[in-house]
Write a structure and sequence with these properties.
The protein has one domain: Response regulator (Rossmann fold). It contains 4 helices and 6 strands. The chain is globular, with a radius of gyration of 14 Å.
Length: 133
């Protein structure tokens, strides 16, 4: 039985497979997408508790656009950017967004970071959205 359903969007095959293997070993059900367009189609087809997207897709904002699209879904999944360039976990308090850095030094903590993201999002999932003024 899977803990949660995760959509992993990453352009690099080796990193995508490594992340998928780690998440599946941790008990998560993982769907993968190699491009932002494929990710958007998967977001339209299914529901996910977490969407992880690569930051580098030729055009810089493509990974962020995938996450923005995920955030407007009615089921409101947790979202995070993944990158292999910074070896640390960052929490941005101003916008309450996470950035997971996929680097050899923090692969061991990846599963706990993912569990924390899903747990925090689940606790906020049923709060009403703030009205746009």
């Amino acid at each position: 039985m899977a803990l949660a359903r995760v959509l992993l969007v990453h352009g690099d095959l080796a990193q995508r497979l490594a992340l998928q293997t780690i998440l599946q070993a941790g008990g998560y059900s993982v769907d993968v997408a190699a491009t932002p367009a494929e990710a958007l189609a998967k977001l339209d087809e299914g529901k996910y508790e977490l969407v992880l997207s690569d930051t580098e897709f030729g055009s810089r904002p493509a990974g962020r656009n995938v996450l923005a699209y995920a955030r407007v879904k009615d089921y409101r999944p947790a979202t995070a950017l993944v990158t292999s360039y910074e070896p640390e976990f960052k929490y941005r308090t101003a916008r309450r967004r996470y950035q997971l850095s996929i680097h050899t030094e923090n692969l061991a903590s990846l599963l706990s970071d993912v569990a924390e993201l899903i747990g925090l999002r689940a606790s906020r999932r049923y709060r009403p959205l703030r009205p746009a003024y």
